[in-house]
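Marked as duplicate of an earlier ticket. Keeping the data here for the record.
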Amino acid sequence: MKQKNRLKGKAQLIIKINYLTSAFSLVFCCVCFFLLDITEVIPFVFLAFGILNLVNTILYYYHKQITLTYNVVSAMTLAGATIITLHSGGIHSPFIFVMALIVVAGYVSTRTYGGLYLNLNLLIIILIYSQSIADFNFAPNVVPEKSKDIFALISVLFSIYLIGGVFGKNLLHAHHNLYKTKLILEEKIKEKETLLKEVHHRVKNNLQTVSSLLNLQARNVSDETTKSLLKSSQNRVISMAMVHEMLYMRKDISKIGYKSYVQELAEYLVRSIKGSNNNITLDIDIPDIKLNIDTAIPLGLLINEIVTNALKYGILEDEKGLVFIKLRKGSDDNYILNIGDTGVGYPEAINHKTIKSLGLKLIHNLARQLHGSVKRDFTNEGTHYVVKFKEINHAHNTTSII
């Protein structure tokens, strides 16, 4: 729609200039012939241009091709201005400034046309100069001596009026409209960002409500296995709520700084599972990486599962242990996550296919949702995972974690 309006405005400007130049040409024809006593070449060029340009403009309403109309009038203007310049003093002719109008009109149309007509005009002016200093003159000056000053005045007034009164005025109007549109768009973007922040805030609050409900449910359950499952679900909800909270708190609502998120999530899990007084050391090595919400949430859930398993099953009771998380940007759009612990580990034969553990299944399904893979590294003590994934967007985020 904006492109259509822009083209419509450009067409209106070109049509307006066509009518003006045709009218001026016909008036110039009469002035030259009857008032300035110029009876050769110049008035007939003005007459031909005025009539042909009117025909060209009228034809536009039938074919609706403004580029064709513009190029026809530009070619006629270039030819007519060159002939008139040659027959009114060559390089000393005041009408030579009219050729600048073609360049201005070219840049109003497109940068390509502006550059083309600029180079053509420069070449023609050089040729006109060459003709002026040559020994022979194949285009004699047909402007009588007594009419040269009036002809110069009319030529300069014509150039100034079109450049300032038409092009300048319309370009200023276009600039004003663009500025108004820019302000309106900035205001709408600001409103949209405010609404999106409010959405993230509400989602975070709703997720915290779900977390509180799960916590209340866990308190009323005596079975330790069920209580552990509810606690794990609560932690998963919290990991998602943290993403929305960070998006709400930050200026950039499209991405979050992942180091601070992982640090906050890992510290929360340690407090939640091991208590405030614990022997757990966190080694988080993440550079200044920002990820969008479609990547941040599934990756956060994956980290949540691995760290939870490390704290519950890897590092037993109150033993000392290390949980490490290292994230690096790989080639292209790939990322590499090294994550694990220095706990007791578990046998190689146990995997997401051979055990009913929801945690292990979630780890692999979340890696698949991130268009990546997860592998165990058995070269070190404890449990070590190498996760390779890509940053995804909403359009491609269709894989279920179930």
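See parent ticket for discussion. The mean pLDDT is 81.
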